[in-house]
């Protein structure tokens, strides 16, 4: 069977932790979109792993696949694999030959465009991770991208680069008025990326992704799809243009790996929810805690306690109360069959716990998100207050099970589950694998 893990909010919901928890029952863990903009954390017995491209199943020695929907920077992949090897893991990662490659000029253009936007109008800035994600997906849609399979054939690689690179040079020099550098040196790129192709071939790292997964499934294996980013930064269903350039929502699992939507749909689709909101990068956030000193203090407290600093960029994350219209939207878009609610421990011991239950917009109450970002930005949250829960020994709560979760926290969880109309499969009460209260294992549903 398959289990798909999807971020319900703005990324960093703790997807890595759940992929690791349930990945124990998977044979293959496949990423279906995004690239090294992701930063997924797994903590096993106090040992912390930050994974960017290597699927989070690696900590449990599972086969990892980077599906055709991913954009791959082979240099970051290799260095991540090397680092994990130094720490005693032996990641087995396969790359879809249909996946697109992030080239040095994509990274350059990502930063050049963000700077151009800042110069033109600060409001245009997305706050990307600078990893070249957007420009690589642009080239994919523009039919001028470089795919993993192209790296295996130096002639094809050269042909593609000879077409694409002069365009990038012209863009950097003629449109942005900057100087192109090594990232636009065709000969150097051919040489470097042919060598990368050789390493991929030598280590037998490339696959025909859909076919590979079909065979594994035919052999009775379990496949987990590991979403990166989150619903609100999905290019179709998120807060455009403050989004990433792929589909983190569940539909992406099918198009991004080459299995049918019915396969994904017959399996479980689990939404990962953080008990509050964090956002790294620009864009609206109606429940953001920033309106006065008191709110800012609370945001600082949650940020410090929850370690809310970007895994990839180290940027402090913006903090807000849970946004229920956002979660209703996420549950609908991906058709969640279950949810995991993380970071319950971070909210413990506060004087007040609130959620945005609905929005007020133009005198009307909205239960879900408006489709335009401009209207979303105008939404005022109708806040609901919950009785706070105390700080407790969360490790023993995790051992004792759901009934040991403080009653007020259970009320909060029941409310969230009820509003999303989806059962809770797990509750995160700390970063470690052992600090999770498991109510159901999606592989056993
Ligand atoms: P991802 O991108 O969705 O995988 O999430 P990140 O790894 O970027 O961010 C989640 C952070 O919260 C990591 O530092 C995790 O170790 C940590 N974390 C995950 N679940 C919990 C939880 O239930 N409680 C606490 N306190 N931290 C958690
Ligand atoms: P994980 O998988 C949180 C955000 C960036 C920026 C926007 C576009 O760890 O949850 P991009 O570089 O993708 O073009 O940036 O998306 N972003 C993330 N925010 N978690 C992530 O990944 C993110 N990946 C991208 O901050 O606002
Ligand atoms: Mg992250």
From TrEMBL:
Q: Biological process GO terms, please?
A: 'de novo' AMP biosynthetic process; IMP metabolic process
Described function: Plays an important role in the de novo pathway of purine nucleotide biosynthesis. Catalyzes the first committed step in the biosynthesis of AMP from IMP.
Q: What is this protein called?
A: Adenylosuccinate synthetase
Record's InterPro entries?
Answer: Adenylosuccin_syn_GTP-bd, Adenylosuccin_syn_Lys_AS, Adenylosuccinate_synth_dom1, Adenylosuccinate_synth_dom2, Adenylosuccinate_synth_dom3, Adenylosuccinate_synthetase, P-loop_NTPase
Task: State where Mg(2+) binds.
Answer: 12, 39
The gene name reads purA
Q: Which Gene3D superfamilies match?
A: Adenylosuccinate Synthetase, subunit A, domain 1, Adenylosuccinate Synthetase, subunit A, domain 2, Adenylosuccinate Synthetase, subunit A, domain 3
Q: What is its EC number?
A: 6.3.4.4
Give the record's family classification.
Answer: Belongs to the adenylosuccinate synthetase family.
Q: How is the cofactor bound?
A: Binds 1 Mg(2+) ion per subunit.
EC top class named in words? ligase
Give the binding site residues for GTP: 11-17, 39-41, 317, 343-345, 428-430
Give the residues annotated as active site: 12 (proton acceptor), 40 (proton donor), 140
Residue positions binding substrate: 311-317
* Reactions performed catalytically: IMP + L-aspartate + GTP = N(6)-(1,2-dicarboxyethyl)-AMP + GDP + phosphate + 2 H(+)
Q: Which domain of life is it from?
A: Archaea
Give the keywords, sorted: Cytoplasm, GTP-binding, Ligase, Magnesium, Metal-binding, Nucleotide-binding, Purine biosynthesis
Q: What is an example of a GO molecular function annotated in this UniProt entry?
A: adenylosuccinate synthase activity
Q: Where in the cell is it found?
A: Cytoplasm
UniProt-annotated binding residues for IMP: 12-15, 37-40, 129, 143, 229, 244, 315
| GO CC terms | cytoplasm
């Amino acid at each position: 069977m398959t289990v798909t893990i999807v971020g319900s909010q703005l990324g960093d919901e703790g997807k890595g932790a759940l992929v690791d928890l349930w990945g124990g029952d998977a044979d293959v863990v496949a990423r279906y979109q995004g690239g090294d903009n992701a930063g997924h954390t797994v903590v096993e017995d106090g040992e912390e792993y930050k994974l960017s491209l290597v699927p989070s199943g690696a900590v449990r020695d599972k086969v990892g696949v980077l599906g055709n929907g991913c954009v791959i920077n082979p240099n970051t992949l290799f260095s991540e694999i090397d680092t994990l090897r130094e720490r005693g893991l032996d990641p087995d990662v396969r790359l879809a030959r249909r996946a697109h490659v992030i080239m040095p000029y994509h990274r350059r253009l990502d930063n050049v465009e963000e700077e151009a936007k800042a110069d033109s109008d600060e409001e245009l800035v997305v706050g990307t991770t600078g990893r070249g994600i957007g420009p690589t997906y642009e080239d994919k849609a523009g039919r001028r991208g470089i795919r993993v399979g192209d790296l295996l054939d130096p002639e094809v690689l050269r042909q593609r680069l000879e077409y694409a690179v002069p365009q990038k040079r012209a863009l950097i020099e003629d449109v942005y008025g900057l100087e192109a550098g090594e990232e636009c040196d065709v000969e150097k790129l051919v040489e470097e990326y042919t060598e990368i192709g050789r390493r991929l071939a030598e280590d037998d790292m490339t696959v025909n992704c859909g076919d590979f997964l079909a065979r594994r499934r035919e052999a009775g294996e379990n496949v987990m799809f590991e979403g990166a980013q989150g619903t609100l930064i999905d290019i179709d269903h998120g807060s455009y243009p403050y989004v990433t350039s792929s589909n983190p929502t569940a539909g992406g699992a099918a198009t991004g790996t080459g299995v049918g939507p019915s396969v994904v749909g017959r399996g479980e689709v689990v939404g990962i929810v953080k008990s509050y909101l964090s956002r790294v990068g620009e864009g609206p956030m109606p429940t953001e805690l920033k309106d006065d000193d008191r709110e800012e203090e609370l945001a600082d407290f949650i940020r410090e306690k929850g370690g809310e600093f970007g895994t990839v960029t180290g940027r402090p994350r913006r903090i807000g109360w849970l946004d229920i219209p956002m979660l209703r939207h996420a549950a609908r878009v991906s058709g969640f069959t279950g949810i995991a609610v993380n970071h319950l421990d971070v909210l413990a011991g506060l004087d007040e716990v609130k959620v945005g239950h609905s929005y007020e917009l133009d005198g009307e109450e909205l239960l879900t998100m408006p489709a335009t970002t401009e209207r979303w930005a105008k939404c005022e949250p109708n806040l609901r207050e919950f009785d706070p829960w105390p700080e407790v020994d969360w490790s023993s709560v995790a051992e004792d099970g759901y009934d040991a979760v403080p009653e007020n926290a259970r009320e909060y969880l029941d409310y969230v589950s009820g509003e999303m109309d989806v059962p809770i499969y797990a509750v995160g009460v700390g970063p470690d694998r052992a600090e999770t209260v498991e109510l159901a294992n999606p592989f056993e549903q």
